[in-house]
Amino acid sequence: MKGPPSFRLIRTSMALRSVLVALASLLLAACGGGGGSSQNSNPNVTMSVSPQTLSVSVTTAQAAPAAGIQVNVAGLRSGQEVYLGVQNSDQGINRVINNGGTLPATITIQFDSPAILGPGTYDDTVQVEVCFDQACTQPLANSPQTVQVKYTVTMAPYVITALSPSSVLSGRPAFTLTVKGSTFTPQSTVLWNGVSQPTTYASATQLTAQISAAEIATPGNTSVAVSDPTYGTTNSETFTIQQFAITGLGPSSALAGGLSFTLTVTGLAFTTQSTVFWNGVSQPTTYASATQLTAQISAAEIATPGSASVTVSDPVNGTTNSETFTIQRPPLALNTVSPTSVTVGEPAFTLTVLGTGYSVASVVQWNGATLPTTYVSDTELLAQIPAADISATGTASVTVNDPTNSPTVTTAQTVTIVSASIDAVTFRMNPAHTGAVTFASVSFPGSSKWSVDFVDPPSYALIADGKVIVTVPLLGFTSEMLALDQATGNTVWGPIPLNGFSDATYDNGRVFVVYAPINSTSTLEAFDVNTGVPDWSTPVPSVEFASIAAPTAADGIVYVGGYNNIGALYALDESTGALLWTQPVQYGDNSAPAVTADGVYVSYPCQTYDFRPATGETIWHIDTGCAALGGGTPAVANQLLYSPDWQTGDTGDVFNAETGALKGSYATNSMPAFTTTMGYFLQSGTLRGVTLANNTVQWSFTGDGQLTGAPIVVNQYVFIGSSSGNLYALDGTTGTQVWNVNLGTSVGYLAAGDGLLVVPSGTTVTAYVLSTNP
Question: How far is 40 from 47, CA to CA, in rounded Å?
């Protein structure tokens, strides 16, 4: 035992004291007064300790523990004081603290450090005495009490529990590694892949080791352990030597032709200066963390199937490994075909097929039969449709077959083979601008059907859906548009005021008119042909008043071109007015587009263009080298393009409409008209009928010597007007005059449709019936 105990005064708490006072009063009454031996003045006052035995267990890696013993006193009278004394052995006990104070009292046992003691069982005793006096000549009943204390120290596991840091970036300088664990000694050594490193002992739970730059030069995993001559070798912990690297992409693939998206790049050791590269080109990059970057990838980057290389570059860390992003081929699909309808008996043409998932193995099928197919891109194919396939009216089912994709065959789109139109739907009557129409029969009337007078000279007429639609230029550089009843000439709707001079075209129940104020952007507007109610309106930025060209509508698309600092041709959706495509044209001016099943043609001085209707792709372009503003309206007839060269006056060039090959030239002062075998050209007041096969003049006609305007052809008859007001009909084969009327004033652009011949002259529009059953 550690010497005699030192006694400390203790008192009851206030609550307990009141109980004890009451109890003491009862005891005194029962005993007839106080008294007691010198050894214990009150044998009813007793002491007890809890616990009576105490066991504490620790490992050598733990801190020195502490434990408590509670001392209780019972039967104490009011005002009585007692003294607490403690003594102990010191096998494992470092010290005992007599807290004293109020009852119940606490004794704190502080044990020796387990690491210093070492493993073993240490048995101690703590003797507790409570007395009425400080010299302890009057101990309480049951005093002293002895508590048996067992202090067990076991060896802590010889282990590594943590590494700090647990990873570094490869190629970095030497660093200090902290190894945490238990049972380390000053003789403990850190092993790096089994090789000892310079080690410093900090405590039984911590070592530090110096790791050289050579040890972390190569990315990978390293084994770290601790060796000790007494305890052997610990468990092994893994240390990671990281590479500046990409570990993942999200997403890692996308469909070709898709929209722009955000790419998430995960990896190691990214910094705020790290940049994502896509096929070697830097992308807009946002730093999220050392393990994550995001980059904005545009739709252009995933337009074509294949793969892209993704890397990260950093001015500090260099360039990462490359990860592959897959641009997947979309499923095989057929979305649209162009044209959707063709005229029976027309020549062979190129069908544009638009969809997804196409490859060089894709073929277009027409009613199940494979067609010669050209692969343009994964979204476009071209198929050659022979004339034999459109020799009769009806429908054709178009599909795409590709054994390398899924599905292997698309759903079908329909192409309709229709009879030739008898409407006059645009300038020069039809989208090809041939100036020709065929009725079931033709006879020449003795008088007009009706005549309507306007304030100013009207333009060419559109004849469709039982109506005659004209635009009329007015004073102040404005115009108006109105529809007349074909049978009576009465106004059906209008006049509709238009802010600028205007030209119109018709297709699929809508009238499309382009107009522009002076030196201002033009407008293309759509109207319901039956009511004149506006459907949609859209600006056409590159077309201005000074160079407006008549629009042309065909197969669901309306085309318009013009010039305002730059030349441009526009293609807009007939239903919505949405821009489908636009193409720049050199020195573009007022050329009304000529449109066929597979071509859109415009002509300017020394410039002739052929564009694909559905996409605006340039099929061919002829540039003969001059530079001037202007332009003229081309015509396509018998697979030839007649392209006026405004620069050289009366001369135009003839090209193969499909290839652009130069086939010859022609001379005219106005737009010619064509049948399948003949062309009709007005030059210097003389109308000539030319056999197209050999370019031979078959006949000439001068009429009253004042022929003007442009001829048109109805069946086998050619119509031409004069500035004196004469209107002539000639036999197209011989040039013989077969009919003549005089309208009193100069004849303008003629139009024939739905059995009518509509003649502008001066401020008047006059209608003649050529066929009652066209």
Answer: 12
As a whole number, mean pLDDT of residues 43-67 equals 92
Over 80: is that where the pLDDT of 7 sits? Answer: no
Cα separation, 257 vs 250, in Å, equals 18
Structure tokens at 399: 């599909």
Buried b vs exposed e over 638-657: b needs ≥16 C-beta within 10 Å?
A: eebbbbbbbbeeeebbbbeb
Q: State which amino acid sits at residue 123.
A: D
State which fold the 159-242 domain adopts: Immunoglobulin-like (2.60.40)
This model's pTM is above 0.85: no
Q: How far is CA 408 from CA 327, 333, 378, 403, 404, in A?
A: 20, 9, 14, 5, 7
How many Cβ atoms from other residues are within 10 Å of residue 394's Cβ? 12
Where are the extended beta strands (E) located within 545-695?
552-554, 557-564, 566-573, 579-585, 594-595, 600-604, 607-611, 618-623, 635-637, 640-644, 651-656, 662-667, 673-674, 678-683, 686-691
Contact 351, 336 (CB under 8 A): no
Average pLDDT over residues 194-200: 96
20 — pLDDT class (breaks 50, 70, 90): very low
Q: Which residue has the higher pLDDT, 520 or 453?
A: 453
Q: Within 13 Å of residue 246, how many CA atoms lie on the same side as its CB?
A: 27
SS3 (DSSP) at 121: strand
The C-alpha torsion from 133 through 139 and 141 to 144, rounded to 10°, is: 130
Phi and psi at residue 550, in whole multiples of 5°? -65, 140
Kindly tell me if the per-residue pLDDT of 618 is higher than 50. Answer: yes
Whether the predicted pLDDT of 670 surpasses 70: yes
pLDDT at 301: 96
User: Is 2 a residue whose pLDDT tops 60?
Assistant: yes
Burial of 114: CB neighbours in 10 Å, binned 0-12, 13-18, 19+: buried
Bridge partners (DSSP) of residue 741 are: 727
CATH number of 245-328: 2.60.40.10
Order across the sheet with 717-722: list the strands: 436-437, 707-714, 717-722, 726-731, 737-742
Tokens of 694: 């050999």
Task: Give me the residue spans of the domains in the chain.
Answer: 8-154, 159-242, 245-328, 333-418, 436-769
State the fold for domain 436-769.
Answer: Methylamine Dehydrogenase; Chain H (2.130.10)
Mean pLDDT of all residues in the chain? 90
333-418 and 8-154 share a CATH fold: yes
Rounded to whole angstroms, how far apart are CA atoms 721 and 710?
A: 8
Question: Which residue from 179, 173, 203 is spatially nearest to 191, judged by alpha carbons?
Answer: 179
Q: What are the residues facing 296 on neighbouring strands?
A: 262
Check if the beta carbon of residue 6 is closer than 8 Å to that of residue 85. yes
Residue pLDDT, tens place only, 311-359:
999 998 889 889 999 999 899 999 999 999 999 999 999 999 999 999 9
Q: Among 24-38, 468-482, 737-751, which stretch is predicted with the lowest mean pLDDT?
A: 24-38
CATH of domain 333-418: 2.60.40.10
Tell me the residue length of the chain: 774
Q: What is the three-state SS of 353-416?
A: EEEECCCCCCEEEECCEECCEEEEECCEEEEEECHHHHCCCEEEEEEEECCCCCCCECCCEEEE
Q: For 139, phi and psi rounded to 5 degrees?
A: -70, 155
H helix runs in 660-744, sequence order: none
**Alpha-carbon torsion, ordered 666, 668, 670, 673, to 10 deg:** -50
* 243-259 per-position pLDDT tens digit: 888 989 999 999 988 89
The two tokens of residue 341 are 């309808």
* Separation CA 131–CA 42 (nearest Å): 11
Banded model confidence at residue 11, pLDDT cuts 50, 70, 90: low
Spell out where 424-556 has E strands: 436-437, 450-453, 462-464, 467-474, 478-485, 491-498, 501-507, 510-516, 521-528, 534-544, 552-554
